[in-house]
Amino acid sequence: MNIVMIASECVPYAKTGGLADVVGALPVELQKLGHQVMVVMPKYSFIDGERFNLRPFLSPLGVWMGDTLEWCAVHVTDHHGLPVYFIEFDQYFNRWGLYHDADFNDYLDNPRRFGFLTRAGLQLCRDIHFAPDIVHVHDWHTALAAAYLKIWHWNDPVLGKAASVLTIHNIAYQGIYDARHYPYLGLQWINFTPDKLEDHGRINFLKGGIVYADMVNTVSPTYARETRTPEGGYGLAPYLNDKGENYIGILNGVDYNRWNPETDPMIPMRYSAKDLSGKAVCKRELQRRFSLNVDANIPIIGVVSRLVTQKGLHLLAQAIEDILNNMRVQFVILGAGEKELESFYSSLPARYPGRVGGYIGYNEELSHWIEAGADFFIMPSLSEPCGLNQMYSLKYGTLPIVRAVGGLDDTVQQYDEASAAGTGFKFWEASPRAIYYTVGWAISTFFDRREHIQQMIQTAMAQDFSWERSAGEYVRLYERAIANKQSSKG
Length: 490
Ligand code: ADP
Description:
By secondary structure, the chain is of the alpha/beta class. The chain has 2 domains: about 1-255 and about 465-490, Glycogen Phosphorylase B (Rossmann fold, 3-Layer(aba) Sandwich), CATH 3.40.50; about 275-460, Glycogen Phosphorylase B (Rossmann fold, 3-Layer(aba) Sandwich), CATH 3.40.50.2000. It is about 40% helix and about 20% strand. The protein contains 19 helices and 18 strands. The chain has helices at about 20-30, 90-95, 110-125, 140-145, 145-150, 180-185, 205-210, 220-225, 230-235, 235-240, 275-290, 315-325, 340-350, 365-375, 390-395, 405-410, 430-450, 450-460, 465-490; strands at about 1-5, 35-40, 55-65, 70-80, 80-90, 135-140, 165-170, 175, 200, 200-205, 215-220, 245-250, 300-305, 330-335, 355-360, 375-380, 400-405, 425. The strands form 3 sheets. Strands 3-4-5-2-1-6-7-11-12 form a 9-stranded mixed beta sheet, sandwiched between helices. A 6-stranded parallel beta sheet has the order 15-14-13-16-17-18, sandwiched between helices. Strands 8-10-9 form a 3-stranded antiparallel beta sheet. Helix 12 (about 315-325) links the parallel strand 13 and strand 14. Helix 1 (about 20-30) packs across helix 19 (about 465-490).
């Protein structure tokens, strides 16, 4: 298959979230399976052209936006054997950030910026005669590609056979904008209706993508189900339900080249499921580094997270002091985010000396240390489209304690006391009480049924959430998209 991915982010060039990891990893796996893949993204001014070996590729590229013809340039780099094309258009991408300025104010022309990126990606295919079987787009930023293909390019010699696939990484971000931007996007007023692109008088990019795409997916099966409900769908549940079987969930993969205790260069000592002695060393070093009481017999619970409400860390904040006062346990907390949560969590080490360690900020090395050195890893998320940390934790034999939502529910198997089966501890209620008792359950298992913990560690470390596995599912998704496209063309 010929596949083009158009996206606003791609690791390692530009990243704010999991979307960038997917766009960086999935194309490489697809290429390994024998497909031809190219990626198109913006040339943000902060991308270091020298470091990433960007070369001029095509100039000029003319892109029609409504009645305006915009001229941009295209650069290219080699990304593990496939091309990533960067759209250079200073008016839109010569900015401090991807989506907002340093004060977190969204750029007011975001609909134009990403509408333009989307059309530029399609136009590039035409200019270089790359006839895609699949145009795969991500989140609201590039969702409109599905609409452009159906409205304008259905008979195009290059784009006419392309089926569209939209991946939703987080349904809370939909790209809803004032209708005054609509003419620039060039999608015809006849399509500005509630069943297509209009949303209470405004434009909704993600909804448009959902309606027009040949297949839609999100990043876990449970999140796919949750988003079909009124509370989980943020207004889009009816459109997702309309897709029927053409809306599914596929778990993200993990980059086991970076997250593997057998090869991880960042952790104090490497280890494997066969020989866990290195994990004990990692625990001891973690306790030392955070001035915790060095004791192999006290369980450590790790947190690595954005400190935001979505992650449920305000609920943990309400439970953690009761936990510390009543249980033999230590915590190591790494995160940054909302000021209130930052100041709460940064106050704990002084109040619970030797029992709580914390670091406010982003620190990749520490995140590996915590995954390796902790016994448990807690994620009490309110919602979690897929989540990566619990999958890292499994690989490091650090048992997850999670709220059973989205990808957390799909990747963690509940502990069964009768058989010692399972890979972690799950709860359902979004409350401090549920966190308190589930942590208590994990801690008492640690002290009273240590052999069960050992067995769970073995089961956890044997789980496979590799990209190889997910890429196979994406290929099947593409095949269905192509079949849908063909049947809609008659
Ligand atoms: P989300 O994308 O919603 O933040 P995920 O679990 O999918 O949640 O991914 C979070 C990623 O960011 C993980 O790789 C995690 O290790 C990393 N991360 C989050 N906060 C920090 C931090 N303070 N320091 C280092 N890494 C962090």
